[in-house]
């Protein structure tokens, strides 16, 4: 495939993610039962903001994986990234749908998050597959921890959002374990800390924007 074809393919994928055109393959665990989603207005907007943060996380996940796939040297890690990315497509669709159900809107900064994450994924891929897999393992571990914190912060009554977050958390755990098992090396502390502060910037911005 020529470079221009690859670039067009990437652009198309990016537009699909950003335009909400990437459909999920599996039904949402939210399975919204209107009776169980009687939330007070303040709870509803808090839940929408938290789910917007999670949607941004999934936009980033798409872009990271696309970047890593584009730079991967071997077919084996590329297949691992692709498998995880496919599950993340469901996460993307579920969180977007839930934000809308809660009367919220998606982050206006998504194109920025996507571009930055793609570049980061590509850069980590260029460091070699073992580092790239290590980056994937660490990312998924941090996301898993982040999702656990959302289970504390989401309104207790918002069962549909909680089901989505729980399912995602379980799958991120699996992605992380798969990356380590495939030979991902543990990242040095400064890299882990840098990733954490970047994630913090992203999550605190996406709560509002
Ligand atoms: Fe995910
Ligand atoms: Fe994941």
Structure commentary:
- With 209 residues, the protein is mostly helical.
- Helices cover 75% and strands 0% of the residues.
- The protein has 7 helices and no strands.
- Helix 3 packs antiparallel against helix 6.
- The termini are far apart.
- The mean pLDDT is 90.
- One fe (ii) ion (FE2) binds next to helix 3 and helix 6.
Give a list of the ligands. fe (ii) ion
Q: What is the 3D shape?
A: globular
Give the helix level as a range of percent.
over 70%
The unreliable regions are: none
- String of helices and strands: HHHHHHH
What oligomeric state do the depicted chains represent?
single chain
How big a fraction of the residues is strand? under 5%
CA-to-CA gap between the ends? 38 Å
Largest β-sheet summary: none
Nearest-integer average pLDDT:
90
* Annotation field: number of helices: 7
Cα gyration radius (Å): 17 Å
Derived from helix and strand composition plus strand pairing, the structural class reads mainly alpha
Question: How many E strands?
Answer: 0
SSE layout and pairings?
Elements: H1 3-18, H2 41-71, H3 75-101, H4 110-126, H5 129-153, H6 159-181, H7 189-206
The structure holds fe (ii) ion (FE2) (2 copies).
One fe (ii) ion (FE2) is lined by residues 58, 61, 88, 91, 168, 172.
Brief account:
This protein has 209 residues and is an all-alpha fold.
Which short descriptors sum up this protein?
209 residues; 75% helix; mainly alpha; single chain; globular; binds fe (ii) ion; 7 helices
């Amino acid at each position: 495939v020529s470079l221009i074809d690859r670039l067009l393919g990437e652009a198309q994928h990016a537009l699909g993610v950003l335009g909400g055109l990437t459909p999920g393959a599996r039904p949402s665990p939210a399975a919204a039962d209107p009776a169980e989603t009687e939330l007070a207005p303040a709870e509803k907007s808090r839940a929408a903001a938290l789910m917007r943060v999670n949607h941004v996380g999934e936009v980033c996940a798409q872009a990271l994986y696309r970047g890593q796939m584009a730079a991967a040297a071997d077919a084996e890690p590329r297949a691992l990234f692709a498998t995880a990315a496919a599950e993340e497509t469901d996460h993307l669709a579920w969180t977007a749908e839930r934000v809308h159900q809660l009367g919220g809107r998606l982050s206006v900064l998504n194109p920025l998050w996507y571009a930055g994450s793609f570049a980061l994924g590509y850069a980590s891929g260029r460091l070699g597959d073992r580092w790239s897999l290590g980056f994937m393992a660490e990312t998924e571990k941090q996301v898993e921890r982040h999702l656990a914190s959302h289970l504390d912060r989401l309104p207790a009554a918002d069962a549909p959002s909680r089901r989505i977050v729980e399912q995602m958390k379980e799958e991120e755990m699996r992605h992380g374990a798969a990356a380590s098992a495939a030979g991902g090396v543990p990242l040095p502390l400064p890299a882990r800390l840098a990733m954490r502060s970047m994630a913090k910037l992203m999550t605190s911005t996406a709560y509002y924007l």
